[in-house]
Design a protein that fits this description.
- The strands form 2 sheets. This protein has a 5-stranded antiparallel beta sheet with strand order 2-7-4-5-8, with helices on both faces. It has a 3-stranded mixed beta sheet with strand order 1-3-6.
- Helix 3 packs antiparallel against helix 4, helix 5 packs across helix 8 and helix 6 packs across helix 7.
- The protein starts with a strand and ends with a helix.
- The protein is an alpha+beta fold and 299 residues long.
- The chain is elongated, with a radius of gyration of 24 Å.
- 46% of the residues lie in helices and 13% in strands.
Length: 299
């Protein structure tokens, strides 16, 4: 696939490839109008944000579900990520492309926490789908960036551009949270599948080796990126995977303790706790009862 990838190394080169004027060597806002590449894939060696204005309702390439809005779609790419819109298009036929080089962020607040915008690590199929009002807000952010790009470069340019990009990303964080809310039914189904998988993992005794399931393994089973899986779990439960596994482990312990002959020591060993004292302490912290007290309260 290597020869079929257009590797764009910097913002200026990106402008040349897409017929856009360079107003700043580290930032560009490009209007996409049926871009034509010989290569099937494109790789930007810098951050890229795509606003896709025309994505058919029956198009599955960006993961739009029946619960999502369809006024526009946004995809976020990290430096070096390979992108392909679909089998027939390298980039969208219509939309906007915001590019910015990591060097732009040097000595800015955004540089310190850009990795916190985890949607940069989502798959294309986990794109953000905007409502009409959200599309207007994103458009206003792009207009502000465009206006700053047309201002002569001075000592304020780097800070102002990075802050405007940061504002855009903050709005997208809000919009992604709204999208999680609208996908509640789908999310609940994913969590049910995760619960079954974790319960089987716990009952298998694999925790006795002290090995917890990894986020990337859970994400792969659910056909999600690791970043999207972590954010979905946190949004729906308020827990990290390890915290969630611990809750499932305690739920399993409750059922095991009710079986005749299962002592706290046996349950702790089966579920992989380092000691019965640690198990009893954690059990009481999470349930309000010591294991023996819990059994007595249920009988």
């Amino acid at each position: 696939m290597g020869k079929d990838i257009l590797d764009i190394r910097n913002v200026c080169e990106c402008n040349r490839c897409l017929g856009s004027k360079t107003l700043h060597p580290q930032v560009s806002l490009i209007n996409l109008e049926r871009p034509n590449f010989d290569q099937s894939f494109v790789k930007f060696e810098f951050y890229a944000i795509l606003l896709i204005e025309e994505c058919p309702d029956n198009c599955e390439c960006c993961g739009r579900s029946r619960h999502d809005f369809s006024y526009a779609t946004m995809v976020f790419l990290t430096p070096g990520e390979v992108f392909r819109m679909n089998a027939t298009n390298t980039l969208p036929d219509k939309g906007l492309l915001l590019t910015f080089h990591p060097d732009l962020l040097f000595r800015t607040t955004l540089n310190n926490h850009i990795d916190n915008y985890t949607f940069f690590f989502y798959r294309k199929e986990e794109a953000l789908h905007l409502s009409l009002q959200e599309k207007k807000i994103v458009g206003q952010c792009f207009d502000a960036i465009k206006a700053e790009l047309h201002h002569p470069i001075d000592i304020h340019s780097r800070i102002l551009l990075s802050r405007l990009i940061e504002l855009l990303l903050d709005y997208c964080t809000r919009f992604y949270e709204r999208q999680f809310i609208l996908r509640e039914d789908e999310n609940k189904e994913s969590l049910k599948k995760l619960e079954r998988m974790l319960d089987n993992y716990i009952l298998s005794g694999r925790l006795r080796g002290g090995i917890f399931p990894r986020p990337r393994d859970c994400a792969e089973i659910l056909c999600l990126s690791t970043a999207y899986f972590n954010d979905l779990l946190k949004f729906e439960t308020g827990k990290t995977l390890n915290e969630y596994v611990e809750l499932r482990r305690i739920e399993t312990a409750k059922h095991m303790l009710m079986s005749p002959g299962n002592t706290p020591t046996l349950v702790a060993r089966q579920l992989g706790y380092t000691s019965v004292n640690h198990f009893c302490s954690l059990f009481k912290k999470l349930t309000g009862y010591a294991p023996t007290e819990y059994v007595q309260a249920q009988n």
